[in-house]
Amino acid sequence: MAPPTPGPIAVLPTEADLHVDAVTAAGGTVAPLGDDTRGVVWLDARDPAGLAEALRSAPGIGWVQLPFAGVDAFAHLIEEHGDRVLFTSAKGAYAEPVAEHALALTLGTLRVLQQRARATSWATEPQGVSLYGREVLVIGAGGIALEYIRLLAPFEVSVTVVRRSADPVPGAARTVTTDELDAVLPDADVVMIAAAMTAGTAKLFGPEQFALMKPSARLVNIARGGLVDTDALVQALRDGEIAAAGLDVTDPEPLPDGHPLWSEPGAIITPHQADTPDMVAPLLAERVRVNTTAFLGGSGDGFVGVVDPAAGY
Fold it and tell me: What pTM value is reported for the model?
């Protein structure tokens, strides 16, 4: 694909002053969507149809900046337009707050805070274990996973990373490929999911995987709910196949009132707020600034968070 042609950039929705400022700080021109639009900063992750209409109405668009690290909601557009449009995401931009939340869920499940927070009387049975010296399995090797591994360093854990390639990951004792997931699950005290949601990773964790895990193991998911078979997770918690789950994402999402996970004593659930708007707005603005600079350069170099249309992230 040829480098995108520099030109006016539309920032949608238009009231996003912080991101408009990021474009202009990089020397870009912000203008309403039109025939001369060459770039789009798309900020509404819940409106892929709106982006589809923008791409249809402004065929000169050559670069689209998406708002989140996960781009599964836009997968059909990336597949359809990826041969002529460079898509960039926020992958890696929100690593610090999301990894921090993953660590909080890790510690919370190990210290049985999911039960302590619901208690209405003083418990007399000792429960909870320390993170120090544990075996931690990290699924994925993107920015969030790398930051999580960095945060784990003081706890002197042993980290195994599961990813598409076996290339070593800084801070990990070993790296294995995805087809070896089942082989390494039985050793893990904590499993933290930070992988992209693609057709190949949907329901990566199902009944077979939970059956392989330690009864004392904790599962943490801050990626996408669809990576885990929710019914299988509920059953695994009920049957004691795993001890606890810390979830910032679920499938379905939002998790409906009355869903069994809400009343499951082994589950800590947060409402997909590992990265709130206040946390991520300045981080996304910086990504917009960097990529606007690359866009205006005209060579195609310097873009951060480029989405691979074939891989889907």
Answer: 0.90
